Amino acid sequence: MKLTSSQSNCLVFLEFVDEAQQFIKIYSAQLQQNSSQFKIISFHPKVKAFLEQHEIASTDSYHYCPKGSHQKLLIELERITNEIRTFFNLKDKRGVAYSYRENFIFTLRCFLSTWLYRTEVILNAIEQYRPVEVVCSGPLSLNAVRSIWTENEERFLADIICQLSEVHKFKVQILPMLDSKNVWKKSIFISIKSITRNAIGEIAKRLISFSSGSVLVPVNSHQIDLVFEDLYKETKGEKCFAFIGFPQKNKLKEFFRSVRNKRDHSYRYLFYDFDKKVPLDASFSQQCRHLEDQLLKFFQTWHYRKVSVFNWFKVKFDKAIKPEVIFKTYSHSENMLKYFSRWNPCFVMSQHARGIGAVIGELCRLKRIDSLMIPHGSFAAITDDISKKEWKENALGIVNTPYHFLALQTPLIEDFLKEIPVESKPVITGPLIFARKIATHRQGNDFRRRFAKDEEKIILHAGTPKPRQGQRFLHYETMDEYIDGMVSLIEATERMEGVKVLIRYRVIDGLSVDELKAILPKSTNYAIVSAGRFSDFLSIADLLFSFSSSTMEEALHNNIPVLLFNKFNRYIHLKGEELISTKENFKLSAVYNVNTQQELKFALQWILQNHLESKENLETLFSKYKYQSDQINSIVQLLRFQDEPIITQKVS
Questions:
Q1: pLDDT per position as a tens digit, 344-384
Q2: pLDDT digits (tens, 9 = 90+) for 518-564
Q3: For residues 330 and 88, what is the distance between their CA atoms, to the nearest angstrom?
Q4: Residue 241 and residue 210: Cα distance in Å, rounded?
């Protein structure tokens, strides 16, 4: 997208609804007299919807961060990351080093990406509109909360804009922040929750009877409990399976079963205090001080387009990154070593190597405990050098890790490994935590009839946006892009007969289902579905609509075609048949690509008429996305024969 030059008297940047409320309150008279003097840019769909309720127009932020900006920011992030890795050398007395560096880098990149995105949007908008005055909301001084993520309480737009005002010569109006009445309540709630959890855990720890030589997983998420259930059946109960830590609310039933030591249950929970602190030894403290000096020196001199992140980094590092990343990694290193000594695991699995997952993987390698990484995300062929920069970093927490073995769930990851090799031993396991086979119910199913008639085709929208907490460039949609994709699909199918759209939505970034309904166009042609398992909705879908998500591999494994909508021609996760109205003679495919808004309706109609109405056996279209049964190794082989070499010649 090319940004065209124009001019506006007053440019307004709003991130949150409370900021929009303040803006309307203070500028109500000017808005009534001449609202066109304001150019408002919103960073969240909730803000845009709130302004529309007051008949005030605004523009989504993503319009000011086009593909070229994403690429430029990734190049800058790579440069920063590479330089910091040259002097980041923390290592504790237990030999743990990788976890400190990569936990820090992952947190830093999320933090910087959020900051860089906003800086880029603000700069591009200022250069386009050349405003006389810029309005934003912000605190008088920068504040940080104790979290590895960039939380909503942390506002720094005013800091960026004030720095730019000196360079671009415009006036700045900073709106006063509304008092947050819930901050102290939130703090008390977190403390009570932590105390209660630890008390229950200590009681449970004394009640649990658990044999050594167990199989452990750090956290019960991303369907890894299904892996335990499968393994329990395959081993006929001869192995003990347990999650480290404390169950989420919906898993309490399993937790109490584990306390009662019921043998008919496939897994249990072994309590672990994630917040238990360990004092730093003198040598490590000295390393930390030296590292902090180097980091502060680096960020004092680094600028992005004449904007410095130093003040914000200093506050965030001291309040959150240092205690929640570096010190917590140190505590996990010692606590998990004692934990392993107590439970003596024979095998460890994980869905990622970040936070405690990184520490566990590194300790397993140091202590020669066999371990398996089961990636919870989709990794496919890398098609360009800029994209590779982000995937290389993402792989360090999910694919390229200290774990001994790497589970290959679909053939797509083999193409990824050709570009980014790993030290782990690849093992073809087939689907474990995603892309599992489900029973499809395209017709005549009661659950399906709740949403569509038998003769109607169901298009399932499912994506993976990245919110403010952990911004990601190029490969994932921002929240406003995510909503914009929904709107595009709804509008394209509005007058199509025989089509029903289901939007699979997980509440994210504070946007509730009701708020999403208020934002989306009014239509009877779609429904928002949030409760229930994704597999249930996939089982009744005829076509999956997405941008970048492991849901695409879920669909392909179940012979459901995928339409990748790359509206801004930015990134293509899977390449298939590109549908363009000016061309003819398209081939049937498992994957279809649409790279512009204008071609979406044509593409949907073509798929409906040619693919979904085809009488041919289309199963062969999906075969390259699946492993055949004779290629797959059972994890039980790793559990029983871990002293023998694993055969991996089936891997390309």
A1: 898 999 999 999 999 999 999 999 999 999 999 999 999 89
A2: 999 999 999 999 988 999 999 999 999 999 999 999 999 999 999 99
A3: 15
A4: 9
Positive or negative CA dihedral for 140, 141, 143, 149? positive
pLDDT value at position 103? 98
Q: What pLDDT shows up at residue 470?
A: 86
Calculate the alpha carbon distances from 121 to 160, 161, 498, 503 in Å: 11, 11, 41, 28
Those residues whose C-beta lies under 8 Å from the C-beta of residue 475, and which sit 6 or more positions away, are 387, 390, 391, 394, 548, 571, 573
CB atoms within 10 A of CB 299: 20
Find the helix or strand (DSSP H, E) in which 361 lies: helix 356-366
What's phi and psi for 489, nearest 5 deg?
-65, -45
Token pair recorded at residue 471: 């911004």
Q: Which residues contact 649 (CB under 8 A, 6 or more apart)?
A: none
The separation between the first and the last C-alpha atoms of the chain, rounded to the nearest angstrom, is: 39
Helix, strand, coil % in the chain, rounded to nearest 5: 45, 10, 40
Q: How many residues does the chain have?
A: 652
Distance CA 398, CA 383 (A): 20
**How far, in Å, CA of 126 to CA of 146, rounded?**
32
Which bin fits 85, alpha (ψ -120 to 50), beta or left (φ > 0)?
alpha
Name the residue among 454, 455, 523 with its Cα closest to residue 486.
Answer: 523
Q: What is the largest CA-CA distance in the chain?
A: 79
C-alpha separations of 628 from 281, 394, 469, 557, 650 in Å: 52, 28, 39, 11, 11
Q: Kindly compute the dihedral angle of the four CA atoms of residues 150, 152, 153, 159, in this order, to the nearest 10 degrees.
A: 70
pTM: 0.92
The 3-class secondary structure across 201-250, one letter per residue, is: HHHHHHHCCCCCCCEEECCCCCCHHHHHHHHHHHCCCCCCEEEECCCCHH
E runs forming strands in 43-109: 59-60
Tokens representing 388 are 């590779």
- Residue 499 burial class via C-beta count within 10 angstroms: exposed 0-12, middle 13-18, buried 19 and up: buried
Q: Which residues fall within 8 angstroms of residue 204, CB to CB, at 6 or more apart?
A: 255, 258, 259, 269, 271
Q: Which residues of 303-313 are buried (b: 16+ CB within 10 A; e: fewer)?
A: ebeebbbeebb
Q: Is 118 exposed, middle or buried (0-12, 13-18, 19+ CB in 10 A)?
A: buried
Residue 479: its H or E element: helix 479-493
